[in-house]
Amino acid sequence: MNKKRLGGYVYVLHFTDKLSHAQHYIGFSQAPLTRIARHKAGYTTTRIIQACHDNGIGLVKANIIPVPHRIFERRLKAYRKASTFCKYCSPKTYKKSTQAFLLREVKKYEERR
Ligand SMILES: [Zn+2]
Hints:
Layout: E1 8-19, E2 22-29, H1 32-41, H2 47-54, E3 59-67, H3 71-78, H4 94-111
Antiparallel strand pairs: 1-2, 1-3
The protein binds zinc ion.
């Protein structure tokens, strides 16, 4: 059996205020709740998260998406529309957008294997 766990979660954090033009952070983790808690507590080396803390901007968990591989983090970032997947910015449509993203990208991912 393959012990290496490739799958995990892509998570979206919503900033309570804009940081320059950014209002979201997208990351990947196999333990997203722990990772998010660390981001919130300031235990992070991620510069944009540090900048939020420096500017008194809060971080809110906006979406957690189970994915088969960490490459999906890059795929979601490539959409350049994080707000589409944010439950605070798109409360009525983020679930649909997330499902559509997964359907489209998982299909591509499976075809390449
Ligand atoms: Zn948002």
